[in-house]
TrEMBL record:
Organism per entry: Acinetobacter populi
Cofactor stoichiometry and binding remark: Binds 1 zinc ion.
InterPro entries assigned to the protein according to its UniProt record, in alphabetical order: DNA_gyrase_inhibitor_YacG (IPR005584), Znf_NHR/GATA (IPR013088)
Functional description taken from the UniProt entry: Inhibits all the catalytic activities of DNA gyrase by preventing its interaction with DNA. Acts by binding directly to the C-terminal domain of GyrB, which probably disrupts DNA binding by the gyrase.
Top-level taxon in the UniProt lineage: Bacteria
The protein's name: DNA gyrase inhibitor YacG
Coiled-coil ranges per UniProt: none
Keyword vocabulary terms for this entry: Metal-binding, Zinc
Subunit structure: Interacts with GyrB.
Keyword Zinc annotated: yes
GO MF term list: DNA topoisomerase type II (double strand cut, ATP-hydrolyzing) inhibitor activity; zinc ion binding
Transmembrane parts of this sequence: none
Length: 64
């Protein structure tokens, strides 16, 4: 008889073990962690790093 092992992984919010199968809050362990993460997105706490555009004060080439 073959039994399927329940695979767990850490919740991205709190780090507690969470399971993928039969988990309505996946990848989070609970509704609480899901809502905290959603609030962080809404408050713009997560940012994608970008390079700042060059300012007009710095010339791209020498002007003679």
């Amino acid at each position: 008889m073959v039994t399927a092992a329940i695979k767990t992984f850490p919740c991205p919010r709190c780090g507690k073990p969470s399971q993928w199968t039969d988990n309505p809050f996946r990848p989070f362990c609970s509704e609480r962690c899901k809502m905290i993460d959603l609030g962080a997105w809404a408050n713009e706490e997560y940012r994608v790093p970008t390079q700042d555009a060059q300012s007009n004060d710095t010339p791209e080439y020498d002007q003679d």
